[in-house]
Amino acid sequence: MILPLVAGLAVFYVWPIVQSCYYSFTSWGVFGGQQWVGFANYRAFLSDPQLPKAAWNTVLYSLLMLLSIPFSIVCAALLNQVRGRSVGLYRTLYFLPVVSMPAAVAMVWRWLYNGDYGLINYLLSLVGIHGPHWVSDPRFTVYAMAVVGIWASLGYNMIIFAAGLKGIPRHYYEAAELDGAGRIRQFFSITLPLLSPSIFFVSVLTVIGGLQMFDTVLMMLGRSNPALADSKTIAYLFYEDVFLDNQQGMGCAIAVVLMAVLLVLTAVQFRLQKKWVHYE
């Protein structure tokens, strides 16, 4: 019964990973063909002067993306209190960014962030604040892209947390009310502990997605943006090496290193979850 799924995973996931590991030790010509170069690609990647800044941007973006978790929990808890037909409307509105095309999302946010005529700077000007150029000033680009990422992931996280909230037995809250616990005390003493498996699941996905951040950089900044050099991520370095510089071997080395980092971080998260995740 599981053979079709196992075959699909082996062909479309396991085998490409094995191929990438092999090709990371090779150098490709313009018209194909591989030449074994050993660890040359890894040495070149680790000595790349762009790597420290790209690694810092990737880590910073991933940490900022974790802020979506408390926002999602609060929104899911508030949505859980809504009754009637409006529940479906609210869920649809919150989930729209998840199903929207990334290019359309980038175009809308580039207009909002525009330093000359963007809506955000216009609203700031109403209170006497001169807004910066959010996506062309390297001091703000990573934070601006993180806001987009948080906004885009809010709906997906809310669905997971809403399902987790539905699974919390109502009698816990009834017992807490009898003991005099208010809504805030119930939230921190009942909701958060019993929602910890969902929080753990979302945190793992958020870190994995944050470390692979690429499309927002490509579509919001563009290659001619003066802030691009200081706003690249590791995934963007992969894009440059493979699709712009035709260095497939280097790209495979970057992919293998990123996969190894993801495996280590995920293993650490699974190790730490034993101390704060409650499954009962």
Automatic annotation (TrEMBL):
Domain ABC transmembrane type-1, chain residue ranges per copy: 54-269
Keywords carried by this UniProt record: Cell membrane, Membrane, Transmembrane, Transmembrane helix, Transport
SUPFAM superfamilies membership: MetI-like
Keyword Phosphoprotein assigned: no
Coiled-coil positions: none
Gene3D superfamilies: MetI-like (1.10.3720.10)
GO cellular component, one term: plasma membrane
Record's bilayer topology term: Multi-pass membrane protein
Pfam families: BPD_transp_1
Location in the cell: Cell membrane
Residue ranges crossing the lipid bilayer per the database entry: 59-80, 92-112, 142-165, 186-211, 248-268
GO terms of biological process kind: transmembrane transport
Keyword Secreted: no
PANTHER family in alphabetical order: ABC TRANSPORTER PERMEASE PROTEIN, INNER MEMBRANE ABC TRANSPORTER PERMEASE PROTEIN YCJO
Family: Belongs to the binding-protein-dependent transport system permease family.
Protein name: Sugar ABC transporter permease
